[in-house]
């Protein structure tokens, strides 16, 4: 019995020594897809980035192939330990400020911010001009007695009596 106990004890000791580093690493959490904090961070970042294909959706909302690739890149960079700012900087360096769903106001993005206001101003100016031109038109001439009688007959549903 002693001969079996000694090798078994040695085996258990060797196993414990082999598993000791794993016990030490257990207290450091590695971000994974199952980690809710990492998942929330990834979604928060993905909601800040525009799908370059759809343009009116974030990469979190889009099903385009490029959006899927960009989501994968965000998650890979999170797993690599990069900060949110580093990830955003990487994306803007690679794709420009247009990749940001809310791009910063600067010289290169002024058209993105001012374009809708400029179009609205042009539309309002065109509407004001159209209204002014219509006011200048003379009023329509009143109906003659024949035209008035014909209109009343049409509205009343009576058959038309032509004088031919």
- Biggest β-sheet strands, sense, barrel: none
Reading off the top of the CATH hierarchy, the class of the domain at 29-104 is best stated as Mainly Alpha
Percent helix: 55-70%
What is the CA–CA distance across the termini? 133 Å
Average residue pLDDT: 83
Give the low-confidence spans.
Answer: 26-31
Q: Give the CATH H-level superfamily of the domain at 29-104.
A: Cytochrome C biogenesis protein
Class from secondary-structure proportions:
mainly alpha
Total number of beta strands: 0
Say what the CATH topology of the domain at 29-104 is.
Helicase, Ruva Protein, domain 3
Could you please describe the fold and organization of this structure?
It contains six helices and no strands. With 164 residues, it is mainly α. The chain is 62% helix and 0% strand.
Question: How would you sum up this structure in a few lines?
Answer:
The chain has 164 residues and is an all-alpha fold. The chain has helices at 2-25, 36-46, 65-79, 84-95, 110-136, 145-156. It has a domain at 29-104: Cytochrome C biogenesis protein (Helicase, Ruva Protein, domain 3, Orthogonal Bundle), CATH 1.10.8.640.
Give the tags.
164 residues, mainly alpha, Helicase, Ruva Protein, domain 3
Explain the layout of strands and helices.
Layout: H1 2-25, H2 36-46, H3 65-79, H4 84-95, H5 110-136, H6 145-156
Helix pairs in contact: 2-3
